[in-house]
Amino acid sequence: MYSIRVSPPGPHRFAFFAGPKPSLCGERVSARRSAMPSPIQNPRFLLYHRCLPLHFPPNPFPFPPNPRRLLHRSTAALSPQPAPAPQTLTSAVPPSSEILSIRESLLSRRKTAAEIAAEYLDRLRRTEQQLRSFLHVSETAMREAEEVDGLVESGAELGPLTGVLVAVKDNICTADMPSTGGSRILGSYRPAFDATAVKRLREAGAIIVGKTNLDEFGMGSTTESSGFQVTTNPWDVSRVPGGSSGGSAAAVSARQCVVSLGSDTGGSVRQPASFCGVVGMKPTYGRVSRFGLMAYASSLDVIGCFGSSVVDAAILLSAISGHDRLDATSSKHEVSDYASQLVSLDHLESKPLKGLRVGVIRETIGEGVDLGVMSSVQAAASHLEQLGSIVTEVSLPSFSLGLPAYYILASSEASSNLSRYDGVRYGYQATADELSSLYGDSRANGLGPEVKLRILMGTYALSAGYYDAYYKRAQQVRTLVRKSFKDALDKNDILISPAAPSAAYKIGEKTNDPLAMYAGDIMTVNVNLAGLPALVVPCGFVEGGPAGLPVGLQMIGAAFHEGKLLRVGHIFEQTLQNHRFIPPLLAET
Amino acid sequence: MALIYFRCIRMNHLFLHPSSPFTKKSGVLFCTLQASHAQVATQVNFQNQGKQKEKSIQTATKKTLEHHKHGYEAIIGIETHVQLSTLTKAFCSCPYLYGTRPNTTICPICMGLPGTLPVLNSKVVEFAVKLGLALNCELSMNSKFDRKQYFYPDLPKGYQISQFDVPIATKGFIDLDLPVEFGGGHRRFGITRIHMEEDAGKLLHSETGSYSQVDLNRAGVPLLEIVSEPDMRSGVEAAEYAAELQRLVRYLGVSNGNMQEGSLRCDVNISVRPTGQSQFGTKVEIKNMNSFSAMNRAIDYEISRQVLLHREGQSDQIVQETRLWDEAAQKTFTMRKKEGLADYRYFPEPDLPEVVLVKEYIDEIRQSLPELPEAKRRRYEKLGLSMQDVLFLANDNNVADFFDAAVENGADAKLAANWIMGDIAAYLKNERRTIDEIKLTPKELSELIAFIKNGTISGKIGKEILFELISKGGTVKSLIEEKDLVQIVDPATIGALVDKVLAANPKQLQQYRGGKTKLQGFFAGQVWNCGSFAILLVPCDEGIQG
């Protein structure tokens, strides 16, 4: 039903480019693809596939003179790029699509789906003890892989995700596995149905490898508020992977799975993608059906994608997007084959982003943002400029209002959405003598502290007499945020910012300071309030851990412009020099 | 769908009293609630306070009620929930049929399982617009759904999807005619608002009262809540308001309006104040009335109760509370006292888009509306029918259609009304059938009326034919011909028949002549049996006597 094309000359390709079409270079695409190595290989093998190493002159200073930035730049210049072990081996190998590589392996019969699955599951088992990214690992994955091999043998048409091991955040319902939302109150809960996104994955041939850890019901930024376990960061196991989709991000980073699904209410896909050095896609609100996603804040929640390359994120997004009659807020906006619009590196001209207007959000570069993160983002901006785009600063005046507005709206909706976890019909039930203690005790014992905190905040904000001052006011802020994004995106094709104000921090570092934790969401929450799509692509490193810590660049687009973000992200990723985002944990194992 | 286990829970019915321990059983279908006897307790309390009052209210007749009320005025407003007869529920594709086995028409969505989302059934909007137009309301071109939040075991999501500050219709009115036996008169009552919402499940309390079970079949069934202005002043007015609403929803086909099944539920708010006082008295809510007559009686009871408290200077004992109507005891009793206003923390339902109406859509629905009861009554009035006839005919849409069709076929309106209200109505009542279930067509009724009017058959024969037509169908003409029922009016023919019968029954004739006049009936019957039914009894009798 789907076909994946790497670089077809399509009408949509580079629609915003002013320059001539990219020209072919050297060997044919198909030949290159067939020679593609397995996803996890010694990077040295990848070297000779590289066709056209693009070279960029030293960064010209990208922004108008600004003393603050000068300072940052000098800081960046002072701090040497950490050089993790794998990177020294391969100076510049862009990430390649694991999904396409698997497909190629299957079609060429070079590997069986069972072999591929065994490889991933083996790695999953070896790394899981340290990572703890999974709450449940499928018992049927191997069997499903064997079924895929039968399908390949029979010569049947293969879906775009055939044989691809996908991990699913545990707040997304799966009929054959427990779905707890990371909460003890749903400790034993098994849904009666697959979420629409999961259903579409299966229809595309994917194998659901397991359910990943998260902050309880998505409320948190570290996975530390999971009701079950804390996931660690594959780049440094003493650090958090980010959250709430920390498990999904860590799993992709450590190649425990090929790609994964997360959910993003205030940055829960983008921040962990940044922390774990993977690609994270937060689609437009309504792009992906929420049916089967346990609601945290219904007007903000979206299901998002993690991949180790932009192509993988694009293929995954195409598979799960589209209208769903079971979700009235899902959009009927046409879904394009995002991956087919991505050109491979060898087809790129020297200025592939010529004419692209990029706005750096002024409010995201400054106080409260780590210097290393800032310099990485500035380097990324320079990189985009070198690729031909026009980079300017843009101001979103309502930016700082977004954070408090977000926490009011998200908590208010959460207080309502979580009412159903009352111990009456399913999940944890306290032993009680009468109704009010049954409710009280079930919720008091079943829900964790962060969830209770937000339910209380939300209940307060919605109470009679406070509604106007909190909820209504926050909605007004939301309107302002939407408008300021619209204005900025009228003048720019994409906006960029850091995905988080810092790289991954230590486990336990912020657990006693919820406000500091909330402040970490400043880069991402506005995007949810505006319902816009945003893509996080790894763009650099800061010091920390055994091999440095990855930093993600957030690119924000207009509603339903996921295709544009993915194209830009792909070119950015393919042309990024001197960085490889393979975590040390993976190099060790 | 996976089998869903409702586990036993221990709970206190209505949150009023701590209940006795209850053994927990696992794996039992439906959750169970412990019910206490709060009602009884409060009732006893009430009785102690004013046994005498109770008695006097109970014995109050209509007359004494009027006497009681003298100097006081009752203010009555009604909130009516109408269950819509859509094929599927409001936000999922489950059907709903009254009386199906518990928890058989449910799905993950109406059970509120994690991850499920509501999707609005467009029929609900259509029905709401229909009723809004029929109640002369202003429609909101942009309305939205809100969440009304509270915890109760019959509410699976912990909130009810409803409409709060922007209901789909507002500011309407309803016209009605009070029944002749209650003094008649035309009334117009204001409609404050109509909004769409979903129903909750049902708690089934065990006979012993030791536990209750949750049935979610009804959860998610679409309702329209109609809130009236506080325009009613008596039980009759309130009951007639409800009856008119029932008529309306049935005319419109949006609900079966059945009170016993709970498809039409009225919550009545009553306050009493001294006549002339502008400030309202304390409002009391009454629930649990299963018929219009129960409504009438419950309200009059409640008015008397409140007036009595006023008279005795105990008006401070009228508190804001919900009372239930006890049909057996014919009185109201306290269900729960309201402690301040409940905070439902309404906020806009984020899972559903706004409801946007366009003019074309409304116009289309407006054009499809049938003639409504009020218009029908005015039209019948113009046909010269009495108010009693008018009310009877317009009460049931199908009856009215039958009547209209008969008149259209040339039947005299008054005669058609008489036939329908008389023999046909009696038949329907006896056989428990509706007018569209019988074989008689309006056309044949008009034929029948015509045949009687022109003297072809007698009224009595007409009746015979009518029952034949009702049960077996056919045409009046063919029945008359088939049975040779044309009226014999020629006295000579009748005389011959009489002679024949007299000759054949000499014994009886002798007895008759001996004074046993009761035998006249016997002879008439014999003549009747002679071959033709269609003999006018009067000449026949004359023949015998002669």
Outline the structure in words:
The complex is a heterodimer of chains A (589) and B (546). Chain A has helices at 29-34, 43-47, 67-78, 85-89, 98-107, 113-131, 141-154, 196-203, 246-253, 270-276, 310-320, 371-386, 402-417, 435-446, 449-462, 468-491, 514-519, 525-530, 562-575, 584-588, and strands spanning 134-137, 165-169, 207-212, 259-264, 279-282, 302-307, 357-361, 390-394, 494-498, 534-542, 549-556. Chain A is of the alpha/beta class. Chain A has an eleven-stranded mixed beta sheet, sandwiched between helices. In chain A, a hairpin with a 6-residue loop joins strand 10 (534-542) and strand 11 (549-556). The model of chain A is unreliable at 1-91 (pLDDT under 50). Chain B has 546 residues and is an alpha+beta fold. Chain B has three domains: 67-356, no CATH class; 371-483, no CATH class; 488-545, Arc Repressor Mutant, subunit A. Chain B has helices at 38-49, 51-58, 62-69, 122-134, 235-252, 292-311, 359-368, 373-382, 387-395, 397-408, 413-431, 442-453, 459-472, 476-482, 491-504, 506-513, 519-529, 537-545; strands at 72-83, 138-139, 142-143, 146-149, 159-162, 169-177, 186-198, 202-205, 212-215, 222-228, 264-274, 284-287, 321-326, 331-337, 347-348, 355-356. In chain B, strands 2-6-7-10-1-11-12-13-14 form a nine-stranded mixed beta sheet. In chain B, strands 5-4-15 form a three-stranded antiparallel beta sheet, with no helix packed on it. In chain B, strand 12 (284-287), helix 6 (292-311) and strand 13 (321-326) form a beta-alpha-beta unit. The radius of gyration of chain B is 30 Å and the shape is elongated. The model of chain B is unreliable at 1-61 and 531-544 (pLDDT under 50). Classes of the chains: A alpha/beta (589), B alpha+beta (546). The interface between A and B is large, with 53 and 49 residues.
